[in-house]
C-alpha cells in the first residue's frame, strides 16, 4: 500500500508542474481515486491534448564554422596570427577546426610517442583569436604558468586543455537520457539536462586538480568542448560558453589507416555529440596520398573503411536510445580534412587552366568529383561549389606552386584541391566555402560556414523534465 501511495505521489509530481490552470486541475482530478491507474489510463493523460502537459518540437538555427588545414609538420610560432584563418569575427556559435600533419610524420612520432606540444600551441592560438577581447592581456598570462610566454612544457593534451575550458567544476555529462518513467510516457528518449557532468578525459569542463581554473572563464566568450590528437591529425571544437550546457553524449573515435594499414599517420578522428535534440558528427581525416593513376581508389577505400568501422561507444543509461553509434546515423555530419584527391591532368595542363581561372575545366577532372558522380564514394553527400584555386602543393613561405622554379622542380606535384569539406544530412545550409591565403604551409587552409537547424524541445513537459530529476 505504501508503495502504491509512493507511485501516485511520483506521478502527481509530474502532472503538477508549472502550466495552465486547466492542466493542473485535470491532473488533480485524475488522481482522486485511491487505486493506482493502469498504464493505458496514465498514458492517455499524457497525450490528451491541451488539457495535460504538452511537448512541442521547434528548430533553431545556429552558425557553424568549419576549417581544415594541413600544416606540413610545422609547429606554429608564438606570433602566428589566426585571425585570417578564423575571419568569422565571433559570428559563429560553433567552431570546428581540423589539422593534419601537426607533427612531422617520421618514425618517432608514428611509432614511438605522440608529441602533444604542437597541439597545445594550436589550442593557445585558437583561444587567443576567439577570446582576444575577453582575455586581452590575460590569456598569455594564464598560459605562461604552463611554461614559456605563450606555450607549454611537455604535458598531456588532457592537461593542456584544462586552460581553455569554461566550466572548471563540471564536465559535460556522458548520458542525460530520460529516465524509464519519462521514456515510457513522453515519447522522447533523450531530454537534455543542461546542468550535467561527463566522464571523458578529452572533453570540456573537467575540474582542475587543484579545484580551480587557469583562466577566469566568465570573461571567455568561447570554451573548448573537445580536442583530440592522433599522431598528425588534430581536431578541436569550441562553442559559445552559454551553449555548452546543451551538449551531451560527447564521444570520440580514432581510426588508423596509415603505414601497414594500422598506424595513425593516416586515418580519422570522429567526434559525436548531441546538441539539444540533434545529433552531430564531425569527421577529420587524412586519406592516402599519391597522384599515380589508381591512388584515388585507395582513398575511396579509406572512406568506406572509416564509415564501416567507426563505432562510437554506447554510453546511454537506457535500454532504448536515439543516440547514434555510426557516422551516417547522425542527423548532421560534416567531413573535413586533407582528402588527398588529385586532378587527373598533367602538371602543364593543370597550370594552363589555372592561368585562365578556368575552375570548371579543372573540376571536371577532379578525382573526388569523378568518384562521387560515379557513386563510388561519398554517395548522398554534398559539397559547395569551388571558386578558388587548388590548395596544394605550394613551396613553403611562397605563393608559388612547388615545381614552378628550378629549385623546387624535384618537389613538383600537380596542383590539386586536396583540402575539402563535405556534409551529409538535412538542415545544413552552406554560406561560404573559401580558401585562406597564408604561406605557413605547403597547403592553403579551407573553411566553410554553415547555418544548421537544431531541434530544441520546448513546452511545459519537455522544459520541466530537462532540468529536474524525478
TrEMBL record:
<dbReference type="Pfam" id="PF22669">
    <property type="entry name" value="Exo_endo_phos2"/>
</dbReference>
<feature type="domain" description="Inositol polyphosphate-related phosphatase">
    <location>
        <begin position="60"/>
        <end position="458"/>
    </location>
</feature>
<keyword id="KW-0378">Hydrolase</keyword>
<dbReference type="InterPro" id="IPR000300">
    <property type="entry name" value="IPPc"/>
</dbReference>
<dbReference type="GO" id="GO:0004439">
    <property type="term" value="F:phosphatidylinositol-4,5-bisphosphate 5-phosphatase activity"/>
</dbReference>
<feature type="region of interest" description="Disordered">
    <location>
        <begin position="16"/>
        <end position="36"/>
    </location>
</feature>
<dbReference type="InterPro" id="IPR045849">
    <property type="entry name" value="IP5P_plant"/>
</dbReference>
<protein>
    <recommendedName>
        <fullName>Inositol polyphosphate-related phosphatase domain-containing protein</fullName>
    </recommendedName>
</protein>
<dbReference type="InterPro" id="IPR036691">
    <property type="entry name" value="Endo/exonu/phosph_ase_sf"/>
</dbReference>
<dbReference type="GO" id="GO:0046856">
    <property type="term" value="P:phosphatidylinositol dephosphorylation"/>
</dbReference>
<dbReference type="GO" id="GO:0034485">
    <property type="term" value="F:phosphatidylinositol-3,4,5-trisphosphate 5-phosphatase activity"/>
</dbReference>
<dbReference type="GO" id="GO:0004445">
    <property type="term" value="F:inositol-polyphosphate 5-phosphatase activity"/>
</dbReference>
<comment type="similarity">
    <text>Belongs to the inositol polyphosphate 5-phosphatase family.</text>
</comment>
Amino acid at each position: 500500500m505504501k508503495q502504491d501511495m509512493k507511485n501516485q505521489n511520483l506521478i502527481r509530481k509530474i502532472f503538477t508542474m508549472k502550466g495552465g490552470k486547466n492542466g493542473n486541475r485535470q491532473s488533480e482530478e485524475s488522481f482522486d481515486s485511491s487505486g493506482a491507474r493502469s498504464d493505458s489510463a496514465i498514458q492517455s493523460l499524457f497525450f490528451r491534448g491541451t488539457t495535460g502537459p504538452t511537448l512541442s518540437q521547434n528548430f533553431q538555427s545556429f552558425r557553424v564554422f568549419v576549417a581544415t588545414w594541413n600544416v606540413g609538420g610545422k609547429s606554429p610560432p608564438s606570433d602566428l596570427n589566426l585571425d585570417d584563418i578564423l575571419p568569422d569575427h565571433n559570428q559563429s556559435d560553433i567552431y570546428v577546426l581540423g589539422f593534419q600533419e601537426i607533427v612531422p610524420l617520421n618514425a618517432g612520432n608514428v611509432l614511438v610517442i605522440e608529441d602533444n606540444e604542437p597541439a597545445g600551441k594550436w589550442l593557445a592560438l585558437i583561444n587567443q583569436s576567439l577570446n582576444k577581447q575577453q582575455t586581452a592581456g590575460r590569456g598569455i598570462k594564464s598560459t605562461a604558468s604552463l611554461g614559456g610566454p605563450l606555450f607549454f612544457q611537455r604535458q598531456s593534451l588532457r592537461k593542456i586543455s584544462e586552460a581553455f575550458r569554461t566550466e572548471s567544476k563540471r564536465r559535460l555529462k556522458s548520458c542525460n537520457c530520460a529516465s524509464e518513467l519519462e521514456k515510457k510516457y513522453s515519447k522522447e528518449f533523450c531530454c537534455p539536462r543542461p546542468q550535467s557532468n561527463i566522464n571523458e578525459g578529452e572533453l570540456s569542463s573537467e575540474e582542475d586538480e587543484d579545484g580551480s581554473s587557469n583562466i577566469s572563464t566568465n570573461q571567455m566568450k568561447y570554451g573548448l568542448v573537445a580536442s583530440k590528437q592522433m599522431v598528425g591529425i588534430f581536431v578541436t571544437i569550441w562553442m559559445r560558453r552559454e551553449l555548452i550546457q546543451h551538449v551531451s553524449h560527447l564521444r570520440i573515435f580514432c581510426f588508423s589507416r596509415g603505414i601497414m594499414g594500422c598506424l595513425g599517420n593516416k586515418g580519422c578522428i570522429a567526434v559525436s555529440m548531441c546538441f539539444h535534440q540533434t545529433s552531430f558528427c564531425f569527421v577529420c581525416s587524412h586519406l592516402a596520398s599519391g597522384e599515380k593513376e589508381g591512388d584515388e581508389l585507395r582513398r575511396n577505400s579509406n572512406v568506406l573503411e572509416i564509415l564501416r568501422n567507426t563505432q562510437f561507444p554506447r554510453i546511454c543509461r537506457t535500454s532504448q536510445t536515439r543516440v547514434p553509434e555510426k557516422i551516417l546515423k547522425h542527423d548532421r555530419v560534416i567531413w573535413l580534412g586533407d582528402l588527398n584527391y588529385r586532378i587527373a591532368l598533367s602538371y602543364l595542363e593543370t597550370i594552363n587552366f589555372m592561368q585562365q581561372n578556368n575552375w570548371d575545366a579543372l573540376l571536371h577532372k577532379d578525382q573526388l568529383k569523378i568518384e562521387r558522380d560515379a557513386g563510388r564514394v561519398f554517395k548522398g553527400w554534398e559539397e559547395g561549389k569551388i571558386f578558388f584555386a587548388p590548395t596544394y602543393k605550394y613551396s613553403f613561405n611562397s605563393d608559388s606552386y612547388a615545381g614552378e622554379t628550378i629549385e623546387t622542380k624535384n618537389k613538383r606535384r600537380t596542383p590539386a584541391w586536396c583540402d575539402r569539406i563535405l556534409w551529409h544530412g538535412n538542415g545544413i545550409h552552406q554560406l561560404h566555402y573559401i580558401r585562406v591565403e597564408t604561406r605557413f604551409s605547403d597547403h592553403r587552409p579551407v573553411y566553410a560556414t554553415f547555418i544548421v537547424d537544431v531541434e530544441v524541445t520546448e513546452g511545459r513537459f519537455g522544459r520541466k523534465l530537462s532540468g529536474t530529476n524525478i
